[in-house]
Amino acid sequence: MLITPATAPFARVGGTCGTPPFSLVPFTACTLIYTFSPTVAGAGQTQAVEFVFRAAVATTDSVSLMGDATQGSQTIDFPAQPARIYGPGYGFPIHPPAVASSGLAVVYGSTTPSVCTVAGSAVAVVAAGTCTITANQPGNASWAAAAQQTQSFAIARASQTLTFPAPSAGSRSFVPGGTFAIDPVATSVTPNAGQPIVYSSLSPTVCTVSGTTVTMVAMGACTLAANQAGNANYNAATQVTTQVQLALFAHGFEVMTPP
Predict the structure, then answer these.
(1) Sheet holding 179-181, edge to edge
(2) Cβ contacts of residue 91 below 8 Å, gap of 6+?
(3) Which residues have C-beta within 8 Å of that of residue 27, sequence separation ≥ 6?
(4) What is the C-alpha separation between 7 and 44, in angstroms, rounded?
(5) Annotated domain spans of the chain
(6) CATH assignment of 162-255?
(7) Measured between alpha carbons, how far is 224 from 211 in angstroms, rounded to an integer?
(8) Are 40 and 69 in contact (CB under 8 A)?
């Protein structure tokens, strides 16, 4: 009797018969042990192993090998993501990326679309806040869907920078109640929060400020400050200052008076 071999996903791994194909002497017995290693999920995967009886007229019989395969399980490894800083139109790739143990591609999404959105593996920043990215692998015929993994990270507010140049006139002739305009004014580096620059006096006994107009109160050093508030996406700018000396002048000479 000739016994034929099985093929994948069945494979002989042992037994006393030897490796098929081989002939079995009549009235003798042996064993064959097979493994089942499916490459796709599904029930009822079968294969026949033939037994050919060599008599005057050869006859064939067979025994069926059968295996049921279930979908394999998979997991997703999604490393922590670094914090980012807000910027209009700013985007970045997800890095380090998520990896599925099955080797299948991971699908990303965002649960915080008011802060960040995702297209493919690219993140677009919408606003400062906490950005939460999801990683999914839906599976296929061989692999069950993986449990969703998420990573949350901060989109920090951006900084603002003010520049306040030295005044066009570093000293002015003091006139009680006299006024002058701040010149030049402070500027804010773009992009910024779009908030107005607000001026004030750090020496109110010498000068006061309303808008961009300075009113003289007394002789001395008039220190002017410029500030710009922040908003949801920008921190307030660091205060910057400049100074104007208010003194008496006579015939083009400064007249110093005791404090």
Answers:
(1) 179-181, 213-216, 207-210
(2) 122, 123, 124, 125
(3) none
(4) 16
(5) 2-69, 76-156, 162-255
(6) 2.60.40.1080
(7) 12
(8) yes
pTM of the model: 0.72
Which neighbouring-strand residues pair with 59?
Answer: 53
**And the tokens for 53?**
């009886």
Tell me which fold the domain 76-156 belongs to.
Immunoglobulin-like (2.60.40)
Q: Cβ–Cβ contacts within 10 Å for residue 173, how many?
A: 15
Distance CA 219, CA 245 (A): 8
Amino acid at 48: A
Structure tokens at 173: 């002739």
What is the full per-residue pLDDT of the chain (259 aa) written as tens digits? 455 666 766 676 777 776 767 666 666 677 767 676 665 555 445 555 544 444 444 455 555 655 666 788 999 999 999 999 999 999 999 999 999 999 999 999 999 999 999 999 999 999 999 999 999 999 998 899 999 999 999 999 999 999 999 999 999 999 999 999 999 999 999 999 999 999 999 999 999 999 999 999 999 999 999 999 999 999 999 999 999 999 987 544 444 444 4
Residues 255/249, Cβ–Cβ less than 8 Å: yes
Nearest residue to 176 (alpha-carbon basis) of 207, 209, 221: 207
Q: Do domains 76-156 and 162-255 have the same CATH topology?
A: yes
The H-assigned helical ranges of the chain are none
